[in-house]
Amino acid sequence: MQYSFSDFVDIIARLRGEGGCPWDAEQTHESIKKNLIEEAYETLEAIDSGNGAKMADELGDVLLQIVFHAQIGKEAGEFTIDDVITAVSEKMIRRHPHVFGDISVKDSDEVLVNWEKIKKQENGQKSTTESMLSVSRYLPALMRAGKVQGKAAKVGFDWAKPEEALEKVKEETEEVSEALKNHSNIKEEIGDLLFAAVNTARLAGIDAEEALTEATEKFIRRFTFVEEKAQNMGKSLDTMNINEMDDLWNMSKISE
Predict the structure, then answer these.
(1) φ, ψ for residue 176 (rounded to 5)?
(2) pLDDT per position as a tens digit, 15-30
(3) Which of 102, 88, 202 is nearest to 152 (CA)?
(4) pTM, entire model
(5) Which fold has domain 5-94?
(6) 5-94 with 125-206: one CATH topology?
């Protein structure tokens, strides 16, 4: 059976309504807000898998969160799903004057420039600082850092190339070393180091969030190799010293 969008809205309304599901009826915007983030990340994983059926399933879970919030909003007299659809439709039309208006653009770069200008106008932003402050604090820290740096770059406050930003990483590394030595400002200095690393990645055209994710996956893969090798040798990692484990680690790098 094929269901329509309106069918799905009715299903959620019934779950929340009289004779519906007690758990669904108890939920609030606050109680389910983290689910939206979780489902979004699972959708990213599905996209990377290249499995169309899995993508459809996970996108459905994201849609569930949106319709669920809209139903809660409707019951509270705040907004409805129609308000959600109208708001985003108006936004798309407003931010694409080259499609729905009489503005001409030569390429996608100009589209992004216009998008940013229109977005600033919508939010009443008159300065770059206001634009930076509009970047959600709920974003993953690496992603937020990159977006904030991008705002500064738009007005020319930026390094010319990644090699220059890398020098800042080296400088911040020295400051972290000094902080560790003095047992002071460690958190602040490590934060500066991470911020500088994001800047280098951004200028190199690399998404820092993706780079760190891949590095973490690589670490797990190599650690798995180390642990399995140790087991094959009849040893346990907790009985081995760091040099022995490092030898196995180097073997894992060669094996790749």
Answers:
(1) -65, -45
(2) 999 999 999 999 999 9
(3) 202
(4) 0.79
(5) Helix Hairpins (1.10.287)
(6) yes
Reported as a single tens digit per residue, the pLDDT across 45-60 is 999 999 999 999 999 9
In contact, 27 and 68? CB cutoff 8 Å: yes
What residue type is 183 in one-letter code?
H
CATH superfamily of 125-206: MazG-like (1.10.287.1080)
Structure tokens at 186: 């460690």
- For the chain, what are the domain ranges? 5-94, 125-206, 210-255
Both tokens assigned to 148: 């904030």
